[in-house]
Write a structure and sequence with these properties.
- This protein is mainly alpha-helical and about 190 residues long.
- The protein has a single domain (about 5-190), classed as CDP-alcohol phosphotransferase transmembrane (TM) domain (Four Helix Bundle (Hemerythrin (Met), subunit A)).
- The protein is about 75% helix and about 5% strand.
- It has 6 helices and 2 strands.
- The protein has a two-stranded antiparallel ribbon.
- A hairpin with a 2-residue loop joins strand 1 and strand 2 (about 35-40).
- It is globular, with a radius of gyration of 18 Å.
- It starts with a helix and ends with a helix.
Length: about 190
C-alpha cells in the first residue's frame, strides 16, 4: 500500500474518534467565546476534523506528484471524504448547531452524484469533479469547522459565520449537483 492510500486510511480511522468526541457528553469543561460556549470536546473534534480534511489535499497532491494514483485510492479517497463530511453534518444536527433539512439536502446530493459516478463507471467512463464541486467541498469544510468551533473567533462579533457558510455551502452544493447532472446526463441516457 502506497503512502497516499495510507494517508487516506488514516483519515478513515480518525472518523470514529471524531464521532465519539461529539456523540459522548464528555465533561472536560468549556470556554466562553463571545456569546457562545465552546466545549473542549468540540474543540478537539474540530481539530481532528480539520486535520482529516487537510489529509484529503495532502494524499491527492502526493499521489499526483509522485504518480501514485491507484484504483484503491480512487475508491478510498471519495469514500473517506463522504464518510467524514456526512458524519460531521449528522453530528452537527445531533448537537443542535445545523438544521436537519440542510444536512438532508447536502447528503442526498452526495448520494445522487455517487450514483451517477457508479453508472458511469459501469459504462467505463470516469467522471471527474469540476471546479464547482471543489468549491462545494471547501465551503462544506469551512462551515463544518466553524460550527464545530461554535463560530470562534467570529462569535466575538456576534456573527453566525458557521451558519452563513453552511447556507453558502448548501447553495453551491445544489447548483454544482444540478450542473454535474446536466453535463453528464448522457451517461444515464446512453447506459445499457
Amino acid at each position: 500500500m502506497n503512502i497516499p492510500n495510507r494517508i487516506t486510511l488514516s483519515r478513515i480511522f480518525l472518523i470514529p474518534i471524531f464521532i465519539v468526541l461529539l456523540a459522548v457528553p464528555f465533561e472536560w469543561g468549556s470556554w466562553s467565546i463571545g456569546e457562545n460556549t465552546l466545549p473542549v470536546s468540540h474543540f478537539i473534534a474540530a481539530l481532528i476534523f480539520i486535520i482529516a480534511s487537510t489529509t484529503d489535499w495532502v494524499d491527492g497532491y502526493y499521489a499526483r506528484k509522485h504518480n501514485l494514483v491507484t484504483n484503491l485510492g480512487k475508491f478510498l479517497d471519495p469514500m473517506a471524504d463522504k464518510l467524514l463530511v456526512s458524519a460531521a453534518l449528522i453530528l452537527l444536527v445531533e448537537i443542535g448547531t445545523a438544521p436537519a433539512w440542510i444536512v438532508i439536502i447536502i447528503i442526498s446530493r452526495e448520494f445522487a452524484v455517487t450514483g451517477l459516478r457508479l453508472v458511469a463507471a459501469g459504462e467505463g467512463v470516469v467522471l471527474a469533479a469540476g471546479q464547482m464541486g471543489k468549491l462545494k467541498t471547501v465551503l462544506q469544510i469551512v462551515a463544518i469547522s466553524a460550527l464545530l468551533l461554535h463560530d470562534y473567533p467570529f462569535s466575538y462579533l456576534g456573527l453566525p459565520f458557521g451558519l452563513i457558510t453552511l447556507y453558502l455551502a448548501l447553495a453551491v452544493t445544489v447548483v454544482s449537483g444540478v450542473d454535474y447532472f446536466i453535463k453528464n446526463w448522457h451517461v444515464m441516457r446512453d447506459s445499457k
